[in-house]
Specification:
This protein is an alpha+beta fold. The protein contains 18 helices and eleven strands. The protein is about 60% helix and about 10% strand. The chain is elongated. The two termini are about 95 Å apart.
Length: about 575
């Protein structure tokens, strides 16, 4: 519950917080100023001591030498007493050649710093040391002066910080704080008005001032918040990609509709086929379009009151109250036919459907859901591989249409690979795998941009990195079909080098599958002898020379030798 103004303590007051923050800020400023002032004072006082020592050396020392030379000891004593009166010089001692000495000032202490000056008498070109002047300087006295000054300065600034903070806090109270209290006092009710109008803040006497402007803004803000909450609630029940309901809403509706008056209650489970294959071949944007296409078909074929929800990545469910088994089966067959008429990127849209009906209150709706799901998966398993194999051929044909040279390149690589396999004495099954792998080895290029594939100049590092993704893309596409599993592995490693400098895994030597090494040689030879946008085609002799140079580095030397001597020589 909101407190009234009287319920707030002084600790809750914004005015108190303003005072506290200002006082802390001024206190920090006072500390900084005191430190700077102390540093400046220390430097000045230290410079003052240096000046005193210089003055003594230049003015007093000649008099001391003269007095000591003529043995005017009375005058000598007066001179050293004068020196002892300088700031930060506590004691002065003068010694002559015979170790007689004269003293002025305080007793010497260990904390004193000694400054020595030789007393040298000069006559014409002769110099003679006749004594020594010792000054006892008190550096700690400088520190004491600085501490006293810093303490006084800080106390003054502390008082000023309190006064200034009080002034700022008082000004804040008069300008802002007082009006905030008035707003709290003027808000009278928070109950709905007549005809269930939106909640509004009210004031006894409505005036056109800043306070009323703030109240109007608060009322407008409340209405915006109400509308935003409504939108958020709708978004929390909606799948953003398809515009259908989401799993959370479906589960809530399933509980709500699972009543006697809605029987028979039917469910249709929908699973989109080939979503991963579409994503791998054409990118996630095409995958999103596939899901949106299926969602559109479901909305067009179902009734307005039917609940259609996307409950997983590629799964949808339709909740049909007061719909018997015959009706749901009819709708299911109609959805199968409507879905099969759609296409995405030349691929036919395919989905698996399964349905079931709850006819009595005793049946568990979760059991009905599970039966519909099992029915859907049984039909999906029946046509999964044949459907995906058909999709692979469409993807390959799409690549050949987009890149016309790829068709002939794939044919030649396949033929060369078969010939090498026969020359090496591979089994009939292995040769058949080579034939298929050669045809499909670059299918992953369907997901690459055409401007990169056809670029005439040198590829940038970023573009080359993109090109090197195509073996993995090919593997992802081919491995979606169970019977293409071995083919996918051959294709994945067909750009690995014998010396381990290839990609994508950096395999070397016999770590690379034999059939991948065969595809590597066939692919390289065909690429060298065909014109590319970025270079001319090599003739057969030039290409053979390059193969020989790459033997046992890029290529398996035995395969290279068999290709040159047994395949190309025929």
């Amino acid at each position: 519950m909101i407190k009234s103004p009287r319920d707030f303590s002084w600790k809750d007051s914004t005015t108190w917080k303003v005072f506290l923050y200002c006082f802390i800020a001024f206190l920090i400023l006072a500390i900084v100023v005191t430190i700077i002032q102390s540093f400046v004072l220390y430097r000045n006082e230290h410079q003052h001591l240096e000046n005193n020592l210089l003055q003594i050396k230049e003015i007093y020392v000649p008099f001391l030498v003269s007095s000591l030379w003529i043995t005017d000891y009375e005058h000598l004593q007066r001179q050293i007493e004068g020196i002892a009166k300088f700031n930060y010089i506590d004691r002065v001692e003068v010694y002559d050649e015979e170790q007689n000495f004269w003293v002025a000032g305080k007793e010497g202490q260990e904390s004193h710093d000694l400054v020595l000056n030789k007393l040298v008498y000069t006559y014409r070109n002769d110099q003679r040391e006749i004594g020594e002047l010792i000054l006892y300087t008190n550096i700690s006295q400088i520190k004491s002066v600085i501490v006293r000054n810093a303490y006084s300065l800080f106390l003054i600034q502390l008082v000023l910080a309190f006064i200034l903070s009080s002034i700022v806090a008082g000004a804040f109270y008069l300008v802002i704080g007082k009006n905030l209290i008035r707003i709290a006092q003027f808000i009278k009710t928070d109950n709905p008005g007549k005809n269930h109008q939106p909640l509004t803040l009210q004031r006894n006497l409505k005036k056109r001032d800043e306070l009323q402007m703030l109240i109007d803004y608060l009322n407008e803000m409340r209405n915006r918040i109400k509308n935003t909450v409504k939108e958020i609630k709708e978004l929390s029940h909606t799948d953003q990609l398809t515009g259908l309901y989401n799993r959370r809403f479906f589960e809530e509706e399933l509980k709500r509709l699972d009543t006697l008056r809605n029987l028979p209650l039917s469910l249709i489970m929908v699973d989109v086929n080939g979503l991963k294959l579409t994503n791998d071949a054409f990118g996630h944007e095409a995958g999103d379009q596939l899901l949106q296409k299926v969602a559109q078909v479901l909305k067009e074929e179902c009734r307005a009151d039917d609940i259609i929800a996307r409950i997983g990545g590629d799964e949808f469910v339709i909740l049909l109250p007061k719909t018997d088994h015959l009706q749901v089966a009819t709708l299911g067959e109609r959805l199968i036919g409507a879905t099969g008429k759609e296409e995405i990127k030349n691929l036919p849209v395919s989905a698996s459907f399964g349905w079931d009906t709850k006819n009595s209150q005793k049946e568990d709706i979760e059991t009905v859901f599970k039966r519909a799901e099992d029915y859907m998966y049984s039909k999906k398993a029946y046509k999964k591989d044949s459907q995906r194999q058909h999709s692979l051929q469409i993807i390959l044909d799409t690549l050949f249409t987009k890149e016309s040279r790829e068709r002939e390149h794939a044919r030649r690589v396949s033929e060369f690979s078969v010939a090498i396999g026969v020359a090496l004495g591979l089994s009939e099954a292995e040769v058949k795998e080579l034939k298929i792998a050669g045809q499909y080895h670059d299918i992953g290029k369907i997901a690459l941009q055409e401007d990169i594939l056809n670029k005439k100049g040198k590829l940038s590092d970023k573009e080359w990195k993109e090109i090197k993704r195509h073996p993995e893309l090919s593997y992802n596409i081919l491995s979606s079909v169970n019977e293409f599993g071995p083919i996918a592995e051959i294709v994945l490693y067909h750009h690995e080098r014998w010396d381990g400098k290839g990609y994508p895994s950096g395999l070397q030597g016999e770590e690379i599958p034999l059939q991948s090494r065969i595809i590597m040689v066939a692919d390289a030879f065909d690429a060298m002898t065909e014109k590319r946008p970025y270079r001319r085609a090599l003739n057969k002799e030039e290409a053979v020379l390059q193969l020989k140079k790459g033997a046992w580095k890029q290529f398996d030397g035995n395969i290279t030798e068999a290709f040159i001597n047994k395949v190309l020589s025929d």
